[in-house]
Amino acid sequence: MRSLVTGGAGFIGSHMVDLLLAEGHEVVVLDNLSTGHLGNLSHLENNSNFNFHEVDVRSSEEIKPYFEGVDWVFHFAALADIVPSIQRPLGYIRAGADATVSVLEASRLSGVGRFVYAASSSCYGIPDLYPTPESAEIRPQYPYALAKNMGEQCVMHWARIYNLPSVSLRLFNVYGPRARTTGTYGAVFGVFLAQKLAGQPFTVVGDGTQTRDFTYVSDVVKAFFDAAYASVSSEIMNVGSSQTYSINRLVELLEGDITYVPKRPGEPDCTFADISKIKKLLDWSAKVSFEEGVSLMIENIDYWRDAPVWDPSSIEDATKEWFEYLG
Asked: Is the pLDDT of residue 38 over 70?
């Protein structure tokens, strides 16, 4: 098998590359390194089945040759985080819609056998129902969520109009080694682990009782592999742990002092995936417990040694536009 992974130098994408290589695939990675890091792939330098190309997937003509002979495509390339999407909405829409269409067209013209898209549970916004099913109303609260959902709509359109066998997986709060360490204020694990290394208190949003469906990255990439391997198409499925955990519980496991920062508008008090559909169609469910996953994060904590250390003042400055536009 020959698989292509866009955004393969990123957090989830690099773990997808590892799994595919372990399964005996030849793997082509396309990444412009705007958010990905070559260090996530450095252990693969001498692997003859691994090929990396620094390229922007929005360039449809430039990427076409890399799709020749490809069986499966996994599309992870995107821009991450909420605040920069509010500041630079055009770039996020282009990364979500234009880039996805470019990859879809290259896949269609090359006769790719399976296309799997990394969608986001942020499309649900603040849902009415928990656990949240795929049939829930789409309510994007910020441009990042909108862009990811626009990409998903393109994937389903290409599946219907051009018969490109495609699946979209809506991911809930993925965490694990290699989670991004950029200078942008974002995912809670990166924030907390850098604070733990620096001996600083954890900046807990609100009162910490909000819960998240934290799903370990190895379980997530297994869902992508299963989705490619299966015969289902034109399906949208949630990928979650089937549990939801409070931020206070995360702090307990990480062990440290707490300082509180204001609750942010547009954020749900709970994320919790209804995974009955993916269980039925793919026989998939998460295997890594939250406690086990957090322990693995602590074991790999040195990865976050150079990550920015946030405090209430820097968070206030970084999120002021969040409150301005969503408040």
From this structure: yes
Distance CA 103, CA 299 (A): 36
Q: Determine the Cα–Cα distance for residues 304 and 177; give it in Å rounded to an integer.
A: 9
Total residues found in the chain within this entry: 327
- Provide the b/e sequence for 126-145 (b: ≥16 CB within 10 Å): ebeebbbebebeebbbbbbb
DSSP string, 214-265: -EEHHHHHHHHHHHHHSS--SEEEEE--S--EEHHHHHHHH---EEEEPPPT
Bridging pattern class, strands 202-205 and 50-54: unpaired
Please state, in angstroms and as integers, the Cα–Cα distance from residue 58 to each residue in 64, 93, 152, following that order. Answer: 11, 12, 16
The single-letter code of the amino acid at 101 is V
Q: 144 catalytic, yes or no? A: yes
CB atoms within 10 A of CB 69: 12
pTM above 0.85, yes or no: yes
Which of 91, 110, 84, 101 is closest to 28 using CA atoms?
110
DSSP 175-219: E-TT----SS---HHHHHHHHHHHTPPEEEETTS--EE--EEHHH
CB atoms within 10 A of CB 154: 23
Q: What is residue 303's DSSP assignment?
A: G
Per-residue confidence band for 182, with pLDDT thresholds at 50, 70 and 90 = confident
Nearest 5 degrees, angle CA 293-CA 135-CA 239? 15
Token digits of residue 312: 């209430």
Which entry of 66, 117, 142, 144 is annotated as an active-site residue? 144
Q: 143 falls in which pLDDT band (50, 70, 90)?
A: very high
What are the structural domains, with CATH classification, of the chain? 2-172+216-239 (3.40.50.720), 175-212+242-270+289-326 (3.90.25.10)
Q: What is the mean pLDDT of the chain?
A: 96
- Token code pair at residue 7: 């955004």
A 10 A CB-CB count for 305 gives 11
